[in-house]
Amino acid sequence: MKKVLILGVNGFIGHHLSKRILETTDWDVYGMDMQNDRLGDLVNHPRMHFFEGDITINKEWVEYHIRKCDVILPLVAIATPATYVQQPLKVFELDFEANLPIVRSAVKYKKHLVFPSTSEVYGMCEDAEFDPAQSTMVYGPINKPRWIYACSKQLMDRVIWGYGMEGLRFTLFRPFNWIGPGLDSIYTPKEGSSRVVTQFLGHIVRGEPINLVDGGAQKRAFTYVDDGIDALMHIIDNKDGVANGKIYNIGNPKNNHSVRDLANQMLEIARSIPEYATTANEVKIVETTSNAYYGEGYQDVQNRVPAIDNTMSELGWKPTTNMSDALKKIFEAYRLDVDKARHLVDNE
């Protein structure tokens, strides 16, 4: 019976992962976060041990539970592009500096560290598919602080790999634009995820214009959260040590769509659902520039498709949810509480 430590347990990945663990295994979850609104009734589950705290403050609790647990998932991170541009030091301090002691404790107590890297580490790589063992990582100039997130995450990947050379059991996973219910709220603008779906959903339920940055031609490979959690469960289970020392892209190359296409698909679905139709019909698509939307320190990636051959073959996993079904499930999740969706984060 595994004991799994999830730091950032109330975040997008954290709460979905906790739910799956508690529903399908006999594992215990030890979770820390500053809030528990997404966890709902899970906090009362006999195998959920929730602690309200902050990794930068409650350091003794964190170290004690790293020693106590078998698998460590440090999911606390700022992962919002607006913050990269406006507050780059805040991103570095949390995503790298605050997570480094957690990594070192996993080394000290010889635990399996499952660390969230990011699809952003590949930067402006021009490969048709980003391969964790082959693709180069290409970033813009220093005056584009957008890259501090990718750079911080890449440095952590390299540090973890270095510890792996000295005996650390680790697995790095790179989520490619995971989407699903519970992605964001106005109160918790953190945790690795695809913000653009949240933005568009908020605009649709409020009847506001959808802004397409630089025309919305940039593409992303979107992954439904249930598919992502499937892969994570295989990594945590780590049968026969298959995931030790590995880097896995977790994404769905078949769901590669432009941001403009995403906006049109979301509007089409919304107009077909009575609870959304009225406000959806008021939405106009407008074009804006990245400088106007994010600030001068922004750069973007035109295409971001994961190579997932090793993820599928080693973990016995494959993504199964197509784009249309993924979006319909998100709309359905908020259908009976559209007012809740109206408060989705709108600060990017």
Automatic annotation (TrEMBL):
It comes from the Bacteria. InterPro entries: Arna-like_SDR_e, Epimerase_deHydtase, Lipid_A_modif_metabolic_enz, NAD(P)-bd_dom_sf. Gene3D superfamilies: NAD(P)-binding Rossmann-like Domain. Residues 4-251 form the NAD-dependent epimerase/dehydratase domain. The keyword NAD applies. The keyword NAD applies. CDD domains: Arna_like_SDR_e. Keywords: NAD. GO terms for molecular function: carboxy-lyase activity. It holds the Pfam family Epimerase. PANTHER family: BIFUNCTIONAL POLYMYXIN RESISTANCE PROTEIN ARNA (PTHR43245), UDP-D-APIOSE_UDP-D-XYLOSE SYNTHASE 2 (PTHR43245:SF13). This is NAD-dependent epimerase/dehydratase family protein.
